[in-house]
Amino acid sequence: MSTTDRTAPTASTVHSKTRIPAILTIVAGIILLVAGTVTWFTVQSSLADERITVSDDSPRFAGDKVDGPLAAYQQANMIKIHYLESTGGKTYAELDREDPLRQTAITASFLRASLFTSVVAFGIAALAGGLGVVFIIVGWGLMAAGARPEGSYAG
């Protein structure tokens, strides 16, 4: 078959080739956006239920409720400062096994890890939601590109 024997694709052919990927991309975007939003508000609600506030001596967010990633991060840092003050600058691993302050250090480490986990969850939720928006935009772009009439492509 020579190049002159081929017929150019029609507008409906181009549209059918981009329509399914466009719809799938938009649906994936909607799922990511919903999942990210639900995750964000679930983590925020769970943190708020704990009624944690940022330490009054914190340089940032002092006295604020811990219900977002920045406040959670700051409170985790303040826990570290406070427990190192109480242990003379020693971490859990550096304290003697019989030292009663070891329990303070392990509890502080657990609390910090929990707060950092929520910070990561907020980040993943934001990433999922952001990707959802990007997928929706790309899907719309595919749909628009496939809907153009045959001779309208620039190039």
How does the SSE layout of this entry go?
Layout: H1 11-49, H2 69-86, H3 101-147
Helix pairs in contact: 1-3, 2-3
How large is the radius of gyration? Answer: 27 Å
The tally of strands reads 0
Unreliable runs: none
Secondary structural class: mainly alpha
Question: How widely separated are the two ends?
Answer: 26 Å
Shape: elongated
- Major sheet, described briefly? none
Order of helices and strands: HHH
* Mean of residue pLDDT values: 89
- Proportion of residues in β-strands: under 5%
Write down the oligomeric state. Answer: single chain
Count the helices. How many?
3
The helix content, as a percent range, equals: 55-70%
Please explain how this structure is put together.
- The chain has 155 residues and is an all-alpha fold.
- It is 67% helix and 0% strand.
- The protein contains 3 helices and no strands.
- It has helices at residues 11-49, 69-86, 101-147.
- Helix 1 (11-49) packs antiparallel against helix 3 and helix 2 (69-86) runs antiparallel to helix 3.
- It starts with 10 loop residues before the first helix and ends in an 8-residue tail after the last helix.
- The model has no long low-confidence stretch (mean pLDDT 89).
